[in-house]
Amino acid sequence: xxxxxLYLLVCGCSAGDGGNGFxxxxxxxxxxxxxxSAGGGAEWMGTIDEGGDATSDSxxxxxxxxxxADESAGDDEPPNPNETCNGLDDDGNGLxxxxxxxxxxxxGVCENSAPACENGLPGVCTPLAASDEVCNGLDDxxxxxxxxxxxxxxxxxxxxxxxxxxGGVPECDAPxxxxxxCNYQDDDCxxxxxxxxxxxxxxxxxxxxxxxxxxxxxxxxxEASSGGFVVESQDYYDVYASAHAGLQGxxxxxxxxxxxxxxxxxxxxxxxxEGVLGYVSTNExxxxxxxxxxFNGNLGDxxxxxxxAExxxxxxxxxxxxxxxxCYVF
Length: 330
Ligand SMILES: [Ca+2]
Ligand SMILES: [Ca+2]
Ligand SMILES: [Ca+2]
Ligand SMILES: [Ca+2]
Hints:
This protein has a domain at 201-329. It contains 5 helices and 16 strands. It has helices spanning 2-17, 19-28, 31-75, 221-224, 308-317; strands at residues 102-105, 112-115, 117-118, 121-122, 152-156, 159-166, 169-172, 201-209, 214-218, 230-240, 248-254, 260-263, 272-280, 289-296, 301-305, 321-329. It has a 3-stranded antiparallel β-sheet, with no helix packed on it. Strands 9-8-10 form a 3-stranded antiparallel β-sheet. Residues 1-75 have low confidence and may be disordered. One calcium ion (CA) is lined by residues 133-136, 138, 140, 146-147.
């Protein structure tokens, strides 16, 4: 047992100390001495092992220190002067072509990016597709300007306007429909003037006195039915009850013969002014119609009709002379 143990120990010495160890063990011969020598050898080998461990630890440490250094290099994209785009790990950090950054290209919606190095070759950045510029807060045509030249014409029910781009939202300044009020304007732009505005217009009744031959017009239905007059047509035409831009007074006048006539002349053409019947247009305008004025010298009667046919009959058959259009009524 002792010889076998000695042999193993000698083999251990020779491994660490060469021929001198083997020679020393053979010349000693004594088991105790040999064992003692063997014990020293064991301690030496142990020292070697410890040294090996220490070296291994320090190597691991160095490696672990190199790790963080590589990671920081990878995080910082631009600065990696030791790496070039060539498919190789130039800086030896275990990463190929790392930290070479990205390319950017294009403006507006065309803006794009690509790796600066791909597969060892310089990357290519291709801008995204452009389109026509529209008002949306984006640079659609990628010229560096947002929503430029997007002003356009526009319109509403009430008329034309200009559309401008405000904060990426198109705004049309065309007039917008308003609530209808009595103003001789089509406020809600539905094509009708002052429709459904109570009291805006008032009806003029047409009356006739067969005894005197006088035609008489008044907004007062009782008046139209008094003094020998008979209502021929209730609400024969309409006038505005009050003055508005674009309208003119329609005056009721009294002649020396006690009969009436109507005119836009505020002075009643030199005759007596009884007052204003309402307000009318002097031009053919929206929704207006002509009120023809005629005169019969024999009767001393002024006659007014909205019917061209009746006017013509009065001229051809009833002794009236046309005096043109008195005004335009509604
Ligand atoms: Ca643009
Ligand atoms: Ca745009
Ligand atoms: Ca209207
Ligand atoms: Ca109106």
